């Protein structure tokens, strides 16, 4: 039997360096679309560690080969360059469907392509799930709540989304992806799971993706001012990627369709986040205010009671604990080693 030495890999999010216990070895054939991206690659690490056979399907729009390079040569790992907007024939047991640009900079770059990825891409992966009888998990987003009128957001909230705004390709795309998922479940009996992911950070995030945590960390490391948009009083809740992956796997293995909010309920204003980045990287980092973007949600915080109760899941890594792990990965990628630029 093939036994692969445990490697957490470059930029691993695993704070312990050990194989996490709790989820037993299954040996399933699993597709991870978007598996060369930030969240997907950490999920792939966990599935490979568990002993599954993993096929990553990615068109490398925002994903990078480097994120999964440490699995090359492992017979349990396969990487296919493929755009999910095109049909795909595979034989698998489970499909984690993550393929979709996630940061505003990337999803606004080609909005029509973002909608196609969410709608046609999700349709294809559901068609695949139906044909082979695989279980399908959709990574939806807290953005389906739009600029929420309910706080914190529960899964029963239907959202307050602008259908014609610059974020709509993503928000409405994901809402349609959820609808398709439920219609394949009800109409074709496909086993489905829906996760609504809240803002997530960690090693392997794209450095210049314009998201607030990656911006602040890269700016502080490069000795540039931290750019706070608007008055900086808008809030977000930041989840460490390792917690998210645990939640996604529990959801896939569990009995409940969802949707489930997966996020860290710790709520921070952007100014508070800037302070945590200053404490972690450079107390002298300056703050610069910039005009805010259109349609920016004022606040966002998950109610995770449902995931706690039905999946036995809650985040374990606080922002102050998780941020340093991301900082060392960014430092290495920006400067190439641990010495230059360190404080
Ligand atoms: P990411 O951009 O790092 O990863 C997305 C991956 O999908 C990339 O590898 C990209 O190359 C691939 N991809 C994009 N379009 C594709 C296509 N048409 N065909 C094949 N591959 C394609 O983003 P991420 O942060 O890892 O997000 C993963 C998923 O989680 C996304 O579906 C995103 O909407 C969802 N999500 C993420 C967050 C977050 O904070 N990171 C929050 C909510 C939801
Ligand atoms: N599909 C796919 N792989 C498969 C099965 C289906 O990519 O293994 C695609 C198929 O090309 C179609 C979509 O999934 O565009 C929906 O498939 P389904 O069978 O549900 O619908 P239909 O083909 O009847 O439109
Ligand atoms: N933001 C900021 N400075 C930046 C990038 C973003 O203040 O350099 C703000 C942005 O206006 C928003 C919040 O941070 O209010 C979160 O933005 P992000 O793009 O990370 O996530 P999303 O808006 O998708 O939740």
From TrEMBL:
It is found in: Golgi apparatus, Golgi stack membrane. Residues 32-324 form the NAD(P)-binding domain. GO terms for biological process: D-xylose metabolic process; UDP-D-xylose biosynthetic process. Its cofactor is NAD(+). Its main location: Golgi. It is an enzyme of class 4 (lyase). GO terms for cellular component: Golgi cisterna membrane. Its EC number is 4.1.1.35. The keyword Transmembrane applies. Keywords: Decarboxylase, Golgi apparatus, Lyase, Membrane, NAD, Transmembrane, Transmembrane helix. It is a single-pass type II membrane protein. The keyword Transmembrane applies. Pathway: Nucleotide-sugar biosynthesis; UDP-alpha-D-xylose biosynthesis; UDP-alpha-D-xylose from UDP-alpha-D-glucuronate: step 1/1. One of its GO terms (molecular function) is UDP-glucuronate decarboxylase activity. Catalyzes the NAD-dependent decarboxylation of UDP-glucuronic acid to UDP-xylose. Necessary for the biosynthesis of the core tetrasaccharide in glycosaminoglycan biosynthesis. Belongs to the NAD(P)-dependent epimerase/dehydratase family. UDP-glucuronic acid decarboxylase subfamily. This is UDP-glucuronate decarboxylase. It comes from Durio zibethinus (Durian). The lineage of its organism: Eukaryota, Viridiplantae, Streptophyta, Embryophyta, Tracheophyta. The gene is LOC111283817.
